[in-house]
């Protein structure tokens, strides 16, 4: 792809040419004309910017498309600045060369001349530094020359103290310099990249929160099932998957929850329907529950159903409308003896006994399971009392079950 440095940019009142880099950011019409893009091409690039937020490795398709359109051998998006404990987080289109990247992060990032750029506008490297001196320097010879990096343009995006991200575009030595057409294409995309990076950060935060909440519920053996407005399952956590997989009281039939007994199954459907209606009426506090019998004869499952009120702009057919919470009283809390040892300073034997007590066994039953005498177990219980600051077994169970050990 050839450079269009001679293409007209815009003309001031006197008819003199105004270079694109001098245009105000709001002059989008002139940027669009200079970019040479038609509406469909521009629309496709913008769609890739926002659609890329959903990908496991974001924006790869966008950067590869830009690489072709700009005639670049590398297009790079740096999402995290260099720090003492954080490596660079980089998405790029181009030939991977890990052996070059490592010395860059370790030694050369500190002397990179193409940093701290003017915000939210593309600049050429030769506008900032002396080109001959740069080519003679260690940075160019150690990093750019082996990667066939010769001509560069880039932007730091975002007005915060640290940029949200950094866009860098390069061409090899045998190509032409970048021109105003390529600069205009990138300048048109910068505000969309800024918004997309912020959106991706919000999605990442929400995903981290979801994993934390789901992980805690799994450790407590609490099943959570999200249902749509028709009562069909949208998502369930690991604990719910295990409870339903046993088909002992509750199971999945035709994509919906079903109880083993017909009467209880009808009652469950009514609770779900009531929750869906309550959600439509924005009644988030509506919670109802029931017990579900298990054909195995085990303790009944506890089931709570609550409304999930819609957000103002949610798409009705795919959003959760009701949440079902399932508690299996026979399920063992997933605390480990290592966690109890770290939290309370217990010995191996004391931690093993504490796990037995948390599972609902008496001291005598725990002693039998652990292969120790009743007197030994009682001595260990007294030691656990002293280390946890309690004086009765009921208090001990409250501390162990309501503390952080089952969540750690």
TrEMBL record:
<dbReference type="GO" id="GO:0006355">
    <property type="term" value="P:regulation of DNA-templated transcription"/>
</dbReference>
<dbReference type="InterPro" id="IPR000014">
    <property type="entry name" value="PAS"/>
</dbReference>
<dbReference type="Pfam" id="PF00989">
    <property type="entry name" value="PAS"/>
</dbReference>
<dbReference type="InterPro" id="IPR035965">
    <property type="entry name" value="PAS-like_dom_sf"/>
</dbReference>
<feature type="domain" description="PAS">
    <location>
        <begin position="209"/>
        <end position="245"/>
    </location>
</feature>
<protein>
    <submittedName>
        <fullName>LuxR family transcriptional regulator</fullName>
    </submittedName>
</protein>
<dbReference type="InterPro" id="IPR016032">
    <property type="entry name" value="Sig_transdc_resp-reg_C-effctor"/>
</dbReference>
<dbReference type="InterPro" id="IPR013767">
    <property type="entry name" value="PAS_fold"/>
</dbReference>
<dbReference type="InterPro" id="IPR036388">
    <property type="entry name" value="WH-like_DNA-bd_sf"/>
</dbReference>
<dbReference type="InterPro" id="IPR000792">
    <property type="entry name" value="Tscrpt_reg_LuxR_C"/>
</dbReference>
<dbReference type="GO" id="GO:0003677">
    <property type="term" value="F:DNA binding"/>
</dbReference>
<feature type="region of interest" description="Disordered">
    <location>
        <begin position="1"/>
        <end position="20"/>
    </location>
</feature>
């Amino acid at each position: 792809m050839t450079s269009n440095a001679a293409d007209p940019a815009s003309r001031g009142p006197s008819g003199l040419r105004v270079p694109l880099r001098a245009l105000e950011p709001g002059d989008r019409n002139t940027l669009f004309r200079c970019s040479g893009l038609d509406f469909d091409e521009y629309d496709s690039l913008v769609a890739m910017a926002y659609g890329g937020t959903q990908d496991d490795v974001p924006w790869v398709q966008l950067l590869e498309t830009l690489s072709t359109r700009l005639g670049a051998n590398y297009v790079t998006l740096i999402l995290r600045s260099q720090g003492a404990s954080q490596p660079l987080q980089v998405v790029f289109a181009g030939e991977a060369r890990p052996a070059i990247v490592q010395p860059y992060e370790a030694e050369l990032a500190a002397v990179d001349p193409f940093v701290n750029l003017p915000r939210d506008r593309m600049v050429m490297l030769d506008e900032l530094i002396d080109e001959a001196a740069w080519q003679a320097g260690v940075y160019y010879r150690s990093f750019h020359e082996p990667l066939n990096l010769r001509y560069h343009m880039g932007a730091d995006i975002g007005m915060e103290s640290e940029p949200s991200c950094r866009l860098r575009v390069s061409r090899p030595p045998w190509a032409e310099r970048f021109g105003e057409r390529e600069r205009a294409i990138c300048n048109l995309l910068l505000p969309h990249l800024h918004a997309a990076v912020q959106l991706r950060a919000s999605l990442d935060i929400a995903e981290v929160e979801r994993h934390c909440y789901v992980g805690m519920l799994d450790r407590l053996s609490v099943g959570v099932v999200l249902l749509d407005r028709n009562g069909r399952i949208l998502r369930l956590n690991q604990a719910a998957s295990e409870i339903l997989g046993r088909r002992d009281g509750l199971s999945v039939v035709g994509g919906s929850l079903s109880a083993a007994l017909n009467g209880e199954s009808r009652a469950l459907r009514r609770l779900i329907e009531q929750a869906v209606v309550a959600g439509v009426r924005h009644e988030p506090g509506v919670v109802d529950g029931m017990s579900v019998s298990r054909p195995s004869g085990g303790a009944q499952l506890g089931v709570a159903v609550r409304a999930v009120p819609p957000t103002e702009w949610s798409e009705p057919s795919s959003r959760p409308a009701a949440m079902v919470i399932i508690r299996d009283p026979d399920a063992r809390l997933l605390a480990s003896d290592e966690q109890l040892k770290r939290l309370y300073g217990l010995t191996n034997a004391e931690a093993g006994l504490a796990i037995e007590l948390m599972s609902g066994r008496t001291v005598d039953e725990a002693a039998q399971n652990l292969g120790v005498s009743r007197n030994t177990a009682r001595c260990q219980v007294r030691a656990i009392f002293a280390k946890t600051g309690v004086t009765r077994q009921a208090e001990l169970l409250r501390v162990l079950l309501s503390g952080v050990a089952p969540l750690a």
